[in-house]
Amino acid sequence: MKNAIQKSWLGGILAAIAASLCCIAPLLAVFGGISGAATYFNWMEPFRPYMIGLTILIFAIIWYQQLATRQGQQGDCCEPVKRSFWQSKKFLLIVTLCSGMLIFFPYYSSLFYRTPRPSAAAISQARFSYVKLNIKGMSCADCTKHIDGSLLEINGVATSRTSFEKSETIVRYDPAKTNADSINHKIKEIGYQPTLIKNN
Q: What's the predicted TM-score (pTM) here?
């Protein structure tokens, strides 16, 4: 029984990780310096609803087994079996909450991306150019925050507007400080595939 429960919650955690892996992977590029991490797992995005459903089903079964076992022991005349922390409801609650945080990760992942803003003085004094790029490799709308946040780290980039629906980004930059090639390289560095559409 102990091994069955342990295998079940491990399966639940793995399913929760798989459900949000397309949004967790880009963070590897930011914090771990793993180039191309965003594109390794974007094929999993269509399976996200099924992974979420599987996670919920697994934890529903585990909680049912846990509560049913406790009720069965209370009904027996024998002294209840003492459980270790790893078999307790407290530990199961922690694992359940962790899985929930993994499932909802795409909704708060933007908190982990830095979005520096250029000063108003720098914007007003600069003569800007624009570059429009088609971007492949975005698996969900949250990828736009990853791209915009990374591009705004480039010295000379004033604004970045990425659209998931159009699969493109429009970047306004100061040509005295950066150029379209640097912007293109940055997008490749974080794991996406840019193609130049327009530069002026």
A: 0.58
Q: Kindly report, residue by residue over 158-179, the tens digit of the pLDDT.
A: 999 999 999 999 999 999 899 9
Q: Indicate if 183 and 129 belong to the same structural domain.
A: yes
Q: Which residue has the tokens 């399913």?
A: 15
Residue 132 lies in domain: 113-199
141-164: pLDDT as tens digits? 778 888 898 898 899 999 999 999
Backbone angles phi, psi at 53, to 5 degrees: -60, -40
Query: Kind and range of the H or E element at 30?
Result: helix 2-31
Q: In this predicted model, what pLDDT tens digit does every residue of 89-100 receive, in sequence order?
A: 888 888 888 888
Q: Are residues 169 and 149 in the same domain?
A: yes
Q: How many CB atoms lie within 10 A of CB 79?
A: 7
Give the CA angle between residues 60, 103, 3 to the nearest 5°.
45
* Location of structure tokens 């930011």: 30
Shared-domain flag, residues 60 and 46 = yes
Based on the fold, state whether residues 101 and 170 are members of the same structural domain. Answer: no
Structurally, the chain folds into a number of domains equal to 2
Same domain, 9 and 98: yes
Q: Whole-angstrom Cα distance, residue 174 to residue 155? A: 9
